[in-house]
Description:
Blueprint lengths: L1 E5 L5 H13 L4 E5 L4 H8 L2 E2 L15 H8 L5 H15 L8 H14 L3 H22 L8 H16 L7 H13 L8 H8 L3 H9 L7 H17 L6 H7 L5 H12 L3 H16 L1
Parallel strand pairs: 1-2, 1-3
Helix pairs in contact: 1-6, 4-5, 4-6, 7-8, 12-13
Amino acid sequence: MKWITRERPKIDRIACPWLIRRFIDPAAEFYYVPFNEVLKQAEILDAIPFDIPDIELSHHADKCTFDKLLEKYELNDPALQVMAPIIRGADTDVHHLANQASGLWAISAGLAFNIRDDQELLAAGIVIYDALYSWAKHLKDIRHTQNPVDHILLDVYHKFLKQGSAKKTPAWAKEIKEIIQDQLDFNLNLNLKDISSELNVHPAYLSREFSRHFDDLSFGEYIRKLRIDKAIGLLENPAYSLSEIAYLTGFSDQSHFTRIFKKQTGENPSIFRKNLLKSKKDTKG
């Protein structure tokens, strides 16, 4: 079959040819012509027009031509259903339909800017949509970040951003306490700046919202408090020196540890340990 549409494609007029070749007609030929020549050339070439106004295979209501092809040819592949809102969102500038929509728009716009020949552009676009299909079919639940705890931490922050305006303490607040505590055992360099960078959200915003649910403590203050709590647990074991405890709880040196510990508890760690062990001994006695 022959298919014809407007020249200078970007999204729908690349995505649809990809869909047609991969799932409807592997031998399909595509023609890109000026807008006012599409219907005339369709008759001459005996080609099926698509993605122009007032025809069957085009935009209808909030759906784009890609959606119409899925419907007409009853293409129920789950991966195609994942792709559909991404393509629709990118093509109609409604990027909230899918997280990937704005990225697809950026790539498509850049591709069209770099490649002026429409057939070359189609060939390059086919590669893009092959990749998007593979992602939708095999990889959509896999994250780029390799540490599984990092995945959970970022997920919790995403939940937090969506629920940040709620007066009630959100579920993420309880969950994040457990996650941060787990992280302290192997990641002593947690900081809000890195997390906000991953989320592309200003750290001041996260810091302000975070404190609402953590006793008016900033992210940094909360982390320091947990480190001190961990240090108190270690102080119960005489086998650890203060320098070792400082290292194990992420402080730069014993002096830094002592200063922060005293600020949090009102006592030097050495005196705190002495009283702690004495109290423990008296309890046993």
